Fold these 2 entries.
Entry 1:
Amino acid sequence: MEAENSEVAALVEKITGLHAAISKLASLSPSPEVDALFTELVAACVPSSPVDVTKLGPEAQEMRQDLIRLCSAAEGLLEAHYSNMLTALDNPLDHLGRFPYFDNYINLSKLEHDLLAGHVAAPARVAFIGSGPLPFSSLFLAMYHLPDTRFDNYDRCSVANGRAMKLVGAADEGVRARMAFHTAEVADLTAELGAYDVVFLAALVGMTSEEKANTIAHLGKHMADGAVLVARSAHGARAFLYPVVELDDIGRGGFQVLAVHHPAGDEVFNSFIVARKEHISTVGTIGCSWQHECIWTTIEGVADGEMSFK
Ligand SMILES: C[S@@+](CC[C@H](N)C(=O)[O-])C[C@H]1O[C@@H](n2cnc3c(N)ncnc32)[C@H](O)[C@@H]1O
């Protein structure tokens, strides 16, 4: 226990130092200095660690929340930079690997698809909320995993959508025709959410656990009964980079948790939760039984770090 505490203390001290350095940057746009600091931060947070961010003191909590905000802003600028750079090339889709976190999205979309496939056979319509200027998640699902699915990408930033449309415009007709982009704040989506078999909630939509909980409650109110939510979250030290989605908030939002995946290794940063919108008539009982009857098991032979209900 002693060793664990000192490991956590050393990690929090290192991340606090990186937060201080990042906070002093004049700009978060990609540059050798910005890239070096965020590369060091990711390298510190990705390895598995006993840190539980819910147990941090108030000062470290405040630092964490501000660091998530800085990471979100930097990720948006990084994606915009690479979206511009890629769409300036001939055949941009041949060069997507130039994006520093390309492998993360290739591996993450495969993991999410493989876990989803066990619960939703060939979804006809998928919404991706928080698609950004570089919509790799929905693009890779459309290109490699779900050849007949239509994707509606939502982002509150019209400039991000403009960049995303330009990039996807370079895809082949079969993919282009199945990818639509809409400028909207997630809180303003209502009836349209009822059309989807699956709704993805990007890691950076909702900066705090409270905002995540409110967004999930909003999705639960408007998604169709039986539809599936894939909510990206974070685990361990990665919770210094991204907000955490609480399982209780998934249950309170009217969903039953089907699977939780915490990626082992450094191939994928994001955890994610797969949950099904309960039929309103049963949510009173299922919601209650969710708290007591569901038993976590790790299914043999399934990817490391995955937990699903029996
Ligand atoms: C930087 S992108 C990351 C997504 C990543 N490209 C992917 O494929 O998973 C996150 C996007 O979420 C959008 N966003 C954040 N909060 C939002 C909200 N409340 N409603 C809609 N979009 C939001 C931001 O504008 C940003 O473009």
Entry 2:
Amino acid sequence: MALLARILKARLRPAPERGPWQPRPTDARLPARARAEDKGAGRSGAPRAGGRAGGPRSLAAMPGPRTLANLVEFFWKDGFSRIHEIQTETWWLRCSGQRGPHPREPTWGPGRSTETYGADPPGSSPREEGEQWLKMRSVLRQRILKPKDVAIFAGEINQVIADLIKRIYFLKSQAEDGETVTNINDLFFKYSMEGVATILYERRLGCLENSVPQATMDYIEALGLMFCTFKTSMYAGAIPRWLRPLIPKPWREFCRSWDGLFKFSQIHVDNKLRDIQCQMDRGERARGGLLTYLFLSQELTREEIYANLTEMLLAGVDTTSFTLSWAVYLLARHPEVQQTVYREIVRNLGERHVPTAADVPKVPLVRALLKETLRLFPVLPGNGRVTQEDLIVGGYLIPRGTQLALCHYATSYEDENFPRAKEFRPERWLRPGNLRRVDNFGSIPFGYGARSCIGRRIAELEIHLLVIQLLQRFEIKISPWTKTVHAKTHGLLMPEEPIHVRFVNRK
Ligand code: HEM
């Protein structure tokens, strides 16, 4: 069992002064060679790499639970759902294996229909994955990398927000007290799906309607299946092909849910492309957003368009909806913070002004709220990288090709990075006069570098515009049915209990 053989090895605290992988701003600017010469404190007496006295210690000498202990922790004690907590008890995690010549991150989705492309998991050919990924990424980058690129989508997002607000009024009208909306994540899931699909497919899906179209329901079901079987999927993606006939179920389920998602994407892409083609056949100029651009520029094949939009839709829904749920929960739990953010909105934008992307910098506390929410609840509590060169970090030699896990959750909660780290204090992200952005690499919820989140600017726009309009209309109060909500990791860091809030109309 390849995955089992590669399972994590963790080093226990005491914590180092700073997580050794954590890219400090200064490190980020240093040339790779200088970074690779970090000589941190290692364990005295541990074996040295290459047997050189005084040289770095070998990876095998890194202290921490061994393979068996990790197997027990993750598979027997359900460590996967507590992975964020385990991070705070362990210093870093590593898995060996996954070696390859190209920079990449471990990935578990086929990224394409398994029917169309056969059943090979990604990464079976690292070279192809690397080059193909780079090409696709650079095409998408041109359209959605910077805030100003996505500003053009604000109009569409505001229409989705208008529908969401209508839905909130409807749900309130159904509630006994006329104010409570139960399980707000359902609502934000629909909002995020509608929002991201509007941008990706340039059409509305009807998620926020009273009666949701069947195709959309099917997609939601496939997405649900993907997450229900998330753990199975994680194992499935790592099961070598030769072993699949012996344990077929995980891989079969993985493919079934992926195909459901892929087909949904395919239908919506095809519909839009058909519209564009008709327009062109009539001699009209096709104008549109992301999909129109991808089609007209012909930089990606149709299969690449399917694969990328499927991946983006999959990556863009739960991430955004959980973040919104946490943000609203935190605001409801901290009325004084909510009042400060509201006052800033009214002062700088007014009570009813529908914000555009250009308005967002005028309310720095709204941006700070999102950063602070993602610091406390990084929706991806950790992610991985395969090292591209030998590195010496914390006194250990980490050979090229080692898979490292970056622990966002753990570094977000270090007082050294964020004084009084457990407290919700959005203002920590502000600088007097708001002259400069605060960079703190203790919290990198969208990842970092070439492989960071491609949908970051879309997610930020969706969240900023929505938070502004929610606070303009409602005072958000926690429902008496909602006690303290804990976080659990189910692939993503999500609320363990449903969050119910009261949306009280502002006078
Ligand atoms: C609050 C919302 C979101 C958070 C916190 C988030 C976070 C992340 C993180 C941490 C990664 C891995 C980055 C790395 O390895 O350095 C990632 C990857 C990715 N995200 Fe997001 N994401 C969010 C929303 C979105 C949205 C809205 C989309 C699409 C519209 C999206 C699309 C993707 C894709 C496609 C990748 C894979 C990138 C690649 O490997 O090329 N994400 N995201």
